[in-house]
Amino acid sequence: MSETTPAADADTIIHLELKTGRVVIKLRPDLAPQHVERFRTLAAEGFYDNIAFHRVIDGFMAQSGDPTGTGSGGSKLPDLKSEFTNKAKFVRGTLGAARTGNPHSANSQFFIMFAPAPSLDGQYSIFGEVTEGMELVDQIKRGAGGSGVVSDPDRIVSMRPASQTAT
């Protein structure tokens, strides 16, 4: 745990290591406790290490969390029920839970917003926000065309709760 991360916050801070440096994520259990617990559990297990940012759309978002790199995979844990809220909005730096057309299909995939997207408000579970290093997220390789699918994508180096990482 870093000196800047109080012990009380260690369970709600995630360190996302990219090839360009560290991104600090503050989880929001007040908005989506099931999603926060899933994300924290998978990060603690090393699930996200070396997983690709398989879908990245300029001016919209960067999506990761699929071990197959196709956008159709997830963890071995069961899917989560939606935790939509009107309390928070999709703005730059927001972490949202990716899902299929079924609102109760979120599993391990997530996305980080490059810009506000009011059309997502109340449609996807918000479970965190980038508090440091958004300029590093901005450097993630973009996909081509409207689908945003990335060939030779950037990858998560590692992602762990702050309580498991060094300064």
UniProtKB/TrEMBL annotation:
EC number: 5.2.1.8
Entries under PANTHER family matching the protein: PEPTIDYL-PROLYL CIS-TRANS ISOMERASE-RELATED, PEPTIDYLPROLYL ISOMERASE DOMAIN AND WD REPEAT-CONTAINING PROTEIN 1
Function according to Swiss-Prot or TrEMBL: PPIases accelerate the folding of proteins. It catalyzes the cis-trans isomerization of proline imidic peptide bonds in oligopeptides.
Keyword Isomerase on entry: yes
A Pfam short name: Pro_isomerase
Entry protein name: Peptidyl-prolyl cis-trans isomerase
Enzymatic reactions: [protein]-peptidylproline (omega=180) = [protein]-peptidylproline (omega=0)
SUPFAM superfamilies: Cyclophilin-like
Lineage, top ranks: Bacteria, Pseudomonadati, Pseudomonadota, Alphaproteobacteria, Acetobacterales
UniProt GO molecular function: peptidyl-prolyl cis-trans isomerase activity
Domain PPIase cyclophilin-type: 21-164
Family annotation (PROSITE patterns): CSA_PPIASE_2
The keyword Isomerase is assigned to this record: yes
Similarity comment: family membership: Belongs to the cyclophilin-type PPIase family.
Alphabetic keyword roster: Isomerase, Rotamase
Region entry Disordered, spans: 144-167
Domain of life: Bacteria
